[in-house]
């Protein structure tokens, strides 16, 4: 047993979808969440910049005596996780591999869609993982950058969201996909709108849920589970705008977020 907290990292607020799943699957774990809200979005930045930002965030989380880090950011998972594993001696769990595995398990016709930020899609991380498990798969990757802003504005169920989704997802409909990876932590909030566009025969794969499941399995295998069965404590840190984080984050978690502390991440 290990009662040290789990560190959860995201480039902003969307990673709370991963945190929500961890809270449900591991209710006894203490968690330290850091959202790099001052430097979002990561999806349009270079690999070198993402690695630099992520390493600063890891160093901050390590000051909180954590036992593992869940990378709730798809872009950081795709571009920085491999480098981080070479530098830091702590277990990392990303969202890419668990999401890819679930997509392969769910597809019936081997036609899989992946939507995410430009950084995630252009990295080819999901495509490589899926093809390694299913060489015959047809994988269509589409970047949907406006989805993040729609969710952060609370517009995920509006006509604007529906029209935007129609434009982005047209190619996926043409390829007759039957499984779609929601390759950005913000996108599960758009589940209803995406299903409205693609129809209910397309299975939506939520890497947030899959990452939480993988986290539980890893902690169990390495004897790192907390001795508590419930009542985990949650501490939140951001690099900018704690009030917006509390407002939008509370909607994602479906519960009020109390204290959120601001961190000058550039000095770490």
Oligomer: single chain
Give the overall shape, derived from the CA principal axes: globular
Poorly predicted runs of 5 or more residues: none
What is the percent of helical residues?
40-55%
Q: Give the overall average pLDDT.
A: 94
Radius of gyration: 18 Å
The proportion of strand residues reads: 15-25%
Q: What structural class is derived from the secondary structure elements?
A: alpha/beta
Major β-sheet strand ordering: 4-3-1-2-9-10
Task: Tell me the CATH topology of the largest domain.
Answer: Rossmann fold
The CATH architecture term of the largest domain is 3-Layer(aba) Sandwich
Distance between the termini: 30 Å
Largest sheet: 6 strands, parallel
List SSEs in N-to-C order.
EHEHEHHEHEHHEHHEHEHEHE
**Secondary structure tally, helices:** 12
The total tally of domains equals 2
- Number of E-type strands: 10
CATH class identity of the largest domain: Alpha Beta
